[in-house]
Amino acid sequence: MAQSKTHSIRVSEGHSFVLTFASNPSTGYQWFLSNPLDNQYLSLAANEYVPPTSPSRIGQSGHQLFTFHALQKGMTSIAMKYCRPWDAGDCGSFDFTIVTIT
């Protein structure tokens, strides 16, 4: 059964923020947006994988960092899923973030 998390954050208009997820691309899984962003409120500025620090072990998880930019005041959400790109029906985790932009 897939894990699911929901949380909320508050960010100032015009500022950027990062959502960080444990990720292990050697398994084929990676984090993706489940739904398109509401481009009125948010833009995706970067998506990068940061490998584990040295000394790393084979199969050790790193982190996938998503940087978003808050465009204007309001409320929106970010829905993420941890899936294999070729198998959208087999997701290991879901993350839902409610974003309040002040």
TrEMBL record:
> Which spans of this chain does the record mark as coiled coil?
none
In terms of InterPro entries, this protein maps to: Chagasin-like_sf, Cys_protease_inhibitor_I42, Prot_inh_I42_chagasin
Molecular function terms, GO-annotated: peptidase inhibitor activity
Per the record, the domain of life is Bacteria
Instruction: Outline the extent of the Proteinase inhibitor I42 chagasin domain.
Output: 11-98
Q: Which UniProt keywords apply?
A: Protease inhibitor, Thiol protease inhibitor
PANTHER family for this protein: AMOEBIASIN-1 (PTHR36530:SF1), INHIBITOR OF CYSTEINE PEPTIDASE (PTHR36530)
Q: What protein am I looking at?
A: Protease inhibitor I42 family protein
Give the source species.
Brevibacillus brevis (Bacillus brevis)
Q: What is the lineage of its organism?
A: Bacteria, Bacillati, Bacillota, Bacilli, Bacillales
